[in-house]
Amino acid sequence: MPDMANPELPVPEGLVLRPFRGVRFSAGPPGGAKGVGETAKVTSPPYDLISDDDVRELLAVHPNNVVRLILPGADRHDYARARDTLRDWLDAGVLALDGEPAVYVHEQAAGGHVLQRGLIGAVALADPEQRIILPHEHVMPGPVADRLALMRVTEANLEPIFLVYDGGGPATHLVDDIATTRAPLVQADTADGLRHRLWAVTDPAELAVIAKDLRPRQALIADGHHRYATYRALQAERRAQAATPEEAAGPWDHGLALIVDASVYPPDLNPIHRVIPGLPLAQAVSRAKGACQVHEYADLAAGLAALAAADEPAYLLAGEGTACHLLTGPDPLQLRHAMPATRSARWAGLNTSILAEFLLPKVWGLSDDEQAVRIVHHDAQAAVRQARDTGGTAVILNPLSLDQVLAVAAGGERVPRKSTSFGPKPRTGLVMRTFDGG
Question: How confident is the model at residue 6 (pLDDT cuts 50, 70, 90)?
């Protein structure tokens, strides 16, 4: 059966998570010639959550932090330096390739309020039209080009994407059994309060249980849309360059992924806020009054409480000064004219869709792109500080629900860019995949 988008690309036989030889930091003696000491000190958040200040802080904690690989060089895009660093660390024993292929059980926990377990492996790549791996967000060309250049030069998957699926089957039972009865390969207690643990599954019978359970299932990309698009772009590129069918197949037909059973370990969905540097708060509020109901609150705490209690769609605007403004009840006639006729009512009702198609272009005269609109994950106060620093406006949103995201993806649609932030995200640096490791 040919790939629906490109007949040259293979079609996986369902949801396939292949074992690979993981690349991991060597613990070794602290300060020794080999090893990095505490694993936690060389890990990082995903690349798209790291600011320039974060890079400096991570490297101050440990000079071998994985940020040197995922955001290399002073400009964060020195791909040749990432390649050379990866090779140097492997040669020096800072990083080591595991002895045999494995699928890795991964656990993240914090006290009694966070527990997420899943499997890390090399997932077989599938076109979205095959309905095996479903994206729910659109991607931007800039981040895809950046990650593609890094992956092409390093020949490695340095960070797993994050997939969720509806399971409750034998694979999940096995994951729980391993996590509760076996000693981990790695334990890392990071500064955000999470404990990360990792186990290697190498037994053929256990790998067969995982493979059989996952094969008929469908997964949703929770985090890593740009990296998944990069996986597929590199696959197409390498296959187009191959001289023979035998040379076409290779490690680029798979990509590093964490897959979590959301029916047992439901992910957290957090909002992604916007900051519009070129739009002063007073101007944003004035223009919104002709399109929405506007309610003023004395401070951010009162505004956030009102936003959490408001019927959707709702948006909190903040910036200069202490007062903030809640937008609710967009004018139905204006909204109907603004929303694309080809979209479903389900898609058109999302707060991020209304922001992207109505508020930004029609009310404020802006394009929803990386130049005009900045992104702030989770932290409303950080968004407001950034708005004040730039003389602009912060747009604070409530999170979408998992049901909303699943319904849109199942209908073959994608939510606007940066609509969701699933968590907890896999920690970068616990295990990586090089192409020569499978």
Answer: low
Q: What are phi and psi of 259, to 5 degrees?
A: -120, 130
Distance CA 425, CA 356 (A): 25
Distance CA 399, CA 395 (A): 13
Starting at the edge strand found earlier in the chain, the sheet holding 374-377 runs 293-297, 324-328, 314-318, 393-396, 272-276, 374-377
Whole-Å CA distances, 409 to 42, 130, 221: 35, 13, 10
Same domain, 201 and 177: yes
Residue 378 lies in a domain: yes
299, 211: one domain: no
For residues 196 and 331, membership in a common domain is answered with no
Residues 215 and 323 reside in one and the same domain: no
Q: Which residue has the tokens 């076109």?
A: 127
pLDDT higher than 80, residue 248: yes
User: Is position 8 within any domain?
Assistant: no
Residues 348, 432, single domain; the answer is no
**Domain total in the chain:** 2
CB burial string 384-395: b at 16+ within 10 A, e below: bbbbbebebbbb
Residues 213 and 326 in one domain: no
- Please indicate, yes or no, whether the overall pTM of this predicted structure exceeds 0.90: no
pLDDT at 433: 98
**Statement to judge: residues 115 and 97 lie in one domain:** yes
Residue 148 belongs to a domain: yes
Q: What are phi and psi of 139, to 5 degrees?
A: -115, 160
Cite the beta strand spans of 355-392 per DSSP E: 374-377
Residue 49 falls inside a structural domain: yes
Q: Mean pLDDT over residues 311-331, rounded?
A: 97
In the chain the first and final C-alpha atoms are separated, in Å, by: 25
**189 plus 107 within the same structural domain:** yes
Q: Tens of pLDDT along 393-434?
A: 999 999 999 889 988 988 888 888 888 888 899 999 999 999
List all residues 6 or more positions away from 411 whose beta carbon is below 8 Å from its beta carbon.
Answer: 344, 346, 347
Q: What confidence tens digit (pLDDT) does each residue in 7-28 have?
A: 467 788 899 999 999 999 997 6
Phi and psi at residue 275, to the nearest 5°: -130, 130
Distance (Å, rounded) from C-alpha 124 to C-alpha 1? 15
Instruction: Give the pLDDT score at 34.
Output: 63
Provide the 10 A C-beta neighbour count for residue 221: 22
Residue 372: domain span = 272-398
